[in-house]
Design brief:
alpha/beta
Length: 655
């Protein structure tokens, strides 16, 4: 096009030049008088004009060429700029697309469901895991949906079937509300649990994170259950029982009262020790099952530990309501149990406290029921007792005695007294029985019948028994050669083979020969894991000590035990000795014991000899040894030399 313009311009110049030449020629022809010089000048001017026009035409052509080249360059530059911008834009779009793809891929690999909403609660981002958690088909939830539409898709898929659609839709408003909890739990109909966390973002909108937390929830629920329930019976434990008591107290302040029952199984320890802990646990589960069957759904049965249970009986208006339940429990629990491999029978003792009459504090009610239980056990077991006001005074006295007993043990504020054992054939004292004594600074002399059972209850009897053994061996080591010392060993000390090491250490520390130590056990010891006890007895015998069965015939004697372990001595209880000379008294029993011991190669010692008549009878029946107030009451160690002088210093035959 530029070339055509240039050509047209040149043609115009030539036309103008030619037109000028023609015009000038016409002028010359019409004017013949002109001279040659004039014509020459005119021709010259014409030529100059033509040359100027040609020069103008050339300039015009050059300018148009330059303009054409400039336009072409501009067009080319513009095209290059646009192309470059397009290329940059395409590269940016490619990078953005790649980043979005990576983000989506990353979101889809998350183990958490992820939803991102804008300030208008329109969905911006959703990942695949969200669909998997709620069992939604792929693409069921897409960007652009409102939060309500997202929930409606869940409703339609049946993931929230337990609630109405209106209830579920209302939840969205709560989730998005300013006061909403940042973390919530959803329980799905198929049993799964989903943890939902809602977090606002800057500029409006929010992020919702969904985690399928079924296993974690179940594990935490199991841990929480275990913290409040007994592992053996699955009954509520002390923690949950305390909460239930507090709830019952709140109810009692507004409406009716309730009863607090404390239960303790009778003879359970014997079952547990003789048949093993597995059988004991099975028995506890069976007892728990029966207790549940005795109460209503509004009541609570709990296990406090060991063989102790507790019951909260709700809506109790009169003591008769609690008495009826207690009697039903006595009847049901005491029936025989057919366990997997054994048939056993246990009893139960029950203490009852009533709210609000006996108090409206959890600790107070438990204390009152426990005091009543203590009374029930003291009244022969297998019965129930209500708490009474005077019981509280006895409880306080018992607790005070317990504190004093613990303090006395720490201070070793005990002493040993010794009662002589008289040999009827040798007519002399052959040894002494060590007896524990406690003189309190303000109470004075405390009877062993009072503090020894308490020591057993509070777990002091084993260390206290070890102290007696060491002290007796140390003092007996200074006696004249041939005198023995007898030491009582409690059933609790036979629960472990450590007793053998304790005896061995006491003998080594004191230097007392083992043959001069006589260990006395009661028949009840043999009922505690009989085979293990017999093994311990053989271990003690191997040390060289002598073993005596104390109070034979007053407990659960069995001739099979005498056959399984050959005791060195049988001791006749003072209750039999007391009635020896009474008509139709216990003489035939003592005669049988002496005869049995003699046939088994054992010696016999009769306790509680207080009169010459009793002594004569025992001598006549062949009893080997005697001890009692006829010879001497228990005396301190410092009095033994005088006692030995009295009975062993000169030839003297007891009456």
């Amino acid at each position: 096009m530029g070339r055509d313009v240039r050509r047209a311009g040149l043609a115009v110049c030539l036309i103008v030049a030619a037109s000028a030449a023609v015009a000038l020629g016409a002028v010359f022809l019409s004017m013949p008088g002109l001279g040659a010089a004039t014509v020459l000048a005119a021709a010259t001017a014409l030529v100059l004009v033509s040359l100027a026009l040609l020069r103008l035409a050339r300039r015009l052509d050059g300018a148009m060429r330059a303009a054409e080249d400039s336009a072409a360059m501009c067009a080319e530059t513009t095209a290059l700029t646009v192309a470059a911008d397009i290329a940059v834009l395409k590269r940016s779009e490619a990078v953005l697309s790649e980043r979005i793809a990576r983000l989506n891929a990353a979101l889809d690999t998350l183990s958490l469901g992820f939803l991102l909403y804008d300030r208008d609660h329109r969905l911006l981002v959703v990942n695949r895991r969200y669909h998997e958690i709620y069992r939604l088909p792929s693409g069921a939830v897409t960007p652009g949906m409102s939060a309500r539409e997202v929930l409606r898709r869940n409703v339609q898929a049946g993931s929230e079937a337990e609630r109405s659609e209106a209830e579920q839709l209302a939840e969205i408003g709560a989730l998005m509300g300013s006061g909403a909890a940042p973390a919530q739990i959803q329980h799905l109909p198929d049993g799964r649990v989903v943890a939902v966390e809602i977090q606002p973002i800057d500029g409006g909108g929010f992020v919702a994170i969904y985690e399928e937390a079924t296993e974690r929830w179940n594990a935490e629920a199991r841990i929480a259950h275990m913290a409040r329930h007994d592992a053996v019976t699955d009954l509520p434990n002390r923690v949950l029982l305390r909460e239930r008591i507090e709830g019952a107290i709140t109810q009692a302040r507004r409406e009716t009262g309730f009863a607090m029952l404390c239960l303790d199984l009778d003879n359970f320890k014997q079952v547990n020790d003789t048949l093993g802990h597995a059988v004991g646990d099975e028995l506890l589960r069976a007892v728990a099952h029966r207790l549940r069957a005795c109460v209503r759904e509004v009541d609570t049965v709990a296990r406090l530990g060991g063989d102790e249970f507790a019951i909260i009986q709700a809506a109790v208006t009169t003591p008769a309501d609690a008495a009826t339940l207690a009697q039903r429990i006595l009847d049901v629990v005491s029936a025989p149990y057919a366990l997997t491999h054994h048939s056993v029978i246990v009893g139960v003792s029950i203490g009852i406290a009533l709210a609000p009459g006996d108090g409206l504090e959890a600790e107070r009610l438990m204390q009152c029921a426990d005091v009543a239980l203590y009374r029930a056990k003291g009244d022969g077991r297998g019965v129930f007792r209500f708490f009474e006001a005077e019981m509280d005074a006895r409880l306080q006295a018992r607790r005070s005695l317990e504190l004093d007993l613990r303090a006395a043990f720490e201070a070793e504020a005990f002493d040993l007294h010794y009662q002589p054992i008289y040999d009827l054939s040798a007519e002399r004292i052959c040894g002494f029985e060590a007896l524990l004594r406690w003189t309190h600074p303000t109470r004075g002399r405390v009877s062993p019948a009072e503090f020894v059972p308490l020591a057993e209850e509070i777990g002091l009897i084993v260390p206290l028994g070890e102290w007696v053994l060491r002290r007796a061996c140390r003092e007996a080591a200074g006696w004249p050669e041939g005198l023995k010392v007898a030491v009582n060993v409690s059933a609790a000390q036979f629960t472990s083979s450590a007793l053998i090491g304790t005896v061995k250490a006491a003998l080594a520390e004191s230097g007392l020969p083992a043959r001069r130590l006589e260990l006395e056990i009661t028949e009840s010891v043999l009922l505690v894991n009989g085979s293990a006890t017999v093994a311990i007895l053989h271990g003690l015998r191997n040390l060289g000590t002598r073993i005596a069965m104390d109070d034979f015939g007053t407990g659960y004697s069995s001739l099979s035990y005498l056959r399984s372990f050959p005791f060195d001595k049988m001791k006749v209880d003072q209750s039999f000795t007391r009635d020896l000379t009474v008509e139709q008294g216990s003489g035939f029993i003592v005669r049988a014991v002496v005869s049995l011991a003699s046939s088994l190669g054992m010696t016999t010692t009769a306790e509680g000899v207080e009169t010459p008549e009793q002594l004569a009878w025992l001598r006549e029946e062949g009893c080997d040894e005697v001890q009692g107030y006829l010879f001497s009451p228990p005396v301190p160690a410092c009095a033994l030399p005088a006692l030995l002088e009295t009975w062993n210093g000169r030839t003297r035959r007891a009456a």
